[in-house]
Amino acid sequence: MQETKEFDKTNRIQEHEENQKTDFFTHINEIGSIAKQAGGINDLFYEFAMPHLEYLQNRLSTNQIQTVLFACLIYLYNGDKITITRLANFMNYAVFKVLVYLNEFEILEQKRLLHIKREKEDYRYSGGHEQISFELRFTTIDALRKGYYSESAFSQQLSIEKFFVQVERLCEERVQRRQSYPNTIKNMRNLLKDNEHLLFVKKVKALGVNDDTTLVLLRFFHYLVNMDLSEMALYHLEAIYDHSSEFAPIRRLLQNGNYILLTEELIESTCSDGMSDTENFRLTDEAKDEFLVELEESFFNKMPKGMKLHSSIAEKNLFYPEKTQQAINELCSLLQSGYFDDIQKRLSENGMRTGFACLFSGNPGTGKTETAHQIARLTGRDIMPVDISGTKSKWYGDSEKMIKGIFDKYRSCVKRCDTAPILLFNEADAVFSKRRLIGENNNGPAQTENAIQNIILNEIENLNGILIATTNLTNNFDTAFERRFLYKIEFEKPDVKTRKEIWRSLITFLSCEDACTLASRFDFSGGQIENISRKSTVHQVLSGKAPALEDIIKLCNTECLTGETIRKIGF
Prior knowledge:
- This protein has 4 domains: 3-146, Winged helix-like DNA-binding domain superfamily/Winged helix DNA-binding domain (Arc Repressor Mutant, subunit A), CATH 1.10.10; 160-300, Arc Repressor Mutant, subunit A (Orthogonal Bundle); 310-491, Rossmann fold; 496-562, Helicase, Ruva Protein, domain 3 (Orthogonal Bundle).
- The longest helix has 19 residues, at 443-461.
- The protein is α/β, with parallel strands linked by helices.
- The chain is elongated and about 100 Å long.
- The termini are far apart.
- The strands form 3 sheets. It has a 5-stranded parallel beta sheet. A 3-stranded antiparallel beta sheet has the order 1-3-2. A 3-stranded antiparallel beta sheet has the order 4-6-5.
- α3 crosses α5 (64-76) and α30 (526-543) packs across α31.
- Residues 1-7, 16-21, 121-129, 393-397 and 563-571 have low confidence and may be disordered.
């Protein structure tokens, strides 16, 4: 034996008691140091590393070789994955000998101590080779460092919210191939077993379905609860399997309507243009009501992302030409909670559609969007906003599903809210324009846009709530949309009288005469007048005095230069 590999055995044994009291990483460091000095994992290593291995075995509930493998991985960890070749070199093993312990690595993975990363999962088809490496879990290492690691501590007696966090981990680790399918099933069983106190788990177990079906069902609930997605395509379900052939029997059962989750009415196919869509499925309302009782307060009553509460809308005085004001007053009265419910009931009794689809059209800056907000405030209705023009670029590919998802979320809101919210399609020009002819050069985009329009037309037709759409279109409006809107209000540019009122309301120090001068001289929209009022406020802050009429006229001239051509009157 070389001198560099000799040990002071007496000192090592004497240090054993003290080492028992040291922290987790001290034992890891000792194991790594001994392995380096011993030239790998061999008899000499075991002779001196046993006290540290026994300590870790007791802490981790692992056998000897599992403890050695895990300790070596932590010792080698530098923030990145550890390849099997690097581990073999450190242990002074051939790579093949490390591969013999794959079962042991999988047990460590089940204990949530590491990830086995298999790159090129489809190597059988590509002709490549599967590259195995290992990733360590920071949360587990941190728990070990703090002294509270327990294999079951991560999944036992969880709240329903934390349970679904674990369901997300279960599903995503499988999709990302960080867990094998058998390990995923084992982890799922353990998760359900450890949380039998939850009503959700009791309901799942009461179904008596096999593990494969249970995992599919959990994936549907994961999509709904964790991702806020109501639908799942077949290719998303297929993602948990290694090969299409493994999913093929389930695919056939789903498409012919014989899959057990369909026959038990837990899931259903979606509809497209009135036809059953056998490529996309969703949980039934009955399944959501039955299985997610525990989430009623924390999940079903939560507001969708971006929902604007009516109580958060600031009061704002708006001024319109007389004809527009009358139409807005009428609509506001109809949407008051009591009247609206009575009207819907009467329409339903007469076999008519009960939804209220309203169109606000007109030039920019005429108050369409703000009017929708003020109607929401006055009628006590929250707003679910949809900015079509701002999100259209994201729709190519999954466009139809995203649009369906918007209406699904709105339907869900209407169902659980005492007062139906307003679905606000702001700046909806992009989808309300005339449908495009499908030609050779624009086949894809035209088909996508037309499909989106068809979905919206169908949804408006079956609307059970309130939709307000705003648009600047005047000449390119699709007549099919025009027929779907029960109330159509044209927002014209304010006349002189209305402009005068807007000037006085926004710049309160203006005299009647000055307001009349500005209203007569500049043919501005309400939005443009608001811009000038904001600039005058800035002027007042900087100068310490209110701007004179001449200063405001200069601001008006600037607005004329930066905006569209403004018709000046007089002067």
